[in-house]
Design goal:
Rossmann fold; 7-stranded mixed β-sheet; 18% strand
Length: 234
């Protein structure tokens, strides 16, 4: 299967679903990691242009740990809007270029505006990419892919319909997260959180719910034209 994971920022996928993405890659599926924003504002001291280079390198290094291609859409932190036509076109071209069978992204009720906007853009464009007349850069998407929402950052108001046991891949998940050193600093300073400990705690909580040591939770978006019988192929 072609699996496309789309986060708003370069570290979002590592935080919420990297254990599952690692398992999918190990199972032989094609897994593409995408972040919508270049991460230009996620630091107090580092200037934007330098920070973009740092964060792109961090994202590439994280993807290399599982042998996955990493794509940046080049949008800006805090400036992602679901009704922006140029952003919608960029997302349509992404969907058409990857031709995914399955897409994983933020839940519609996630905690900050970029995450919520990306969720809506993914929902909209995974359908629109199958319709002619929007972009001719790539062939029209052959199908509307299955859509899954990854866990909110602390699990608030998120009740998984699917759990994936990521005990065997949790170390790789944390290794991927630690590649984002600039964000370990930012999240400590901006949110007063040790994000590695934070992620491990949530993984344990979902593991208790799932009956294993570590788990990641997801909600499948169920709607007509989506392949609703699809489950995680791991």
């Amino acid at each position: 299967m072609n699996i496309l994971a789309i986060g708003a920022h370069p570290d979002d996928l590592e935080i919420s679903c990297a254990g599952t993405l690692t398992k999918l890659k190990q199972a032989g599926h094609e897994v593409v990691l995408c972040h919508a924003s270049s991460g230009d504002k996620g630091h107090y001291q580092i200037p934007a242009e330098e920070l973009i280079r740092i964060r792109q390198l961090e994202a590439q290094q994280a993807g290399e740990l599982i042998g996955s291609r990493v794509i940046s859409l080049g949008l800006k932190d805090g400036e992602i809007h679901s009704e922006n036509e140029s952003a919608r076109t960029v997302f349509i071209e992404l969907i058409r270029s990857v031709q995914p069978d399955m897409v994983i992204t933020h839940a519609p009720n996630d905690y900050m505006p970029d995450h919520v906007a990306v969720s809506k853009l993914v929902f909209d464009t995974t359908f629109i990419a199958t319709i002619p007349g929007f972009s001719n850069l790539y062939p029209i998407a052959k199908k509307v892919p299955a859509l899954f929402y990854m866990d909110n950052l602390s699990g608030i108001d998120f009740q998984p319909t699917i759990y994936v046991d990521v005990t065997s891949t949790f170390k790789t998940k944390l290794d991927m997260l630690r590649k984002h050193q600039s964000q370990l600093v930012w999240l400590k300073e901006h949110d007063e959180v040790d994000i590695v400990d934070f992620v491990e705690t949530l993984g344990k909580m979902r593991g208790i719910q799932a009956g294993c040591r570590y788990a990641e939770g997801f909600i499948q978006h169920m709607a007509w034209t989506r392949p609703n019988s699809v489950r995680f192929p791991v």
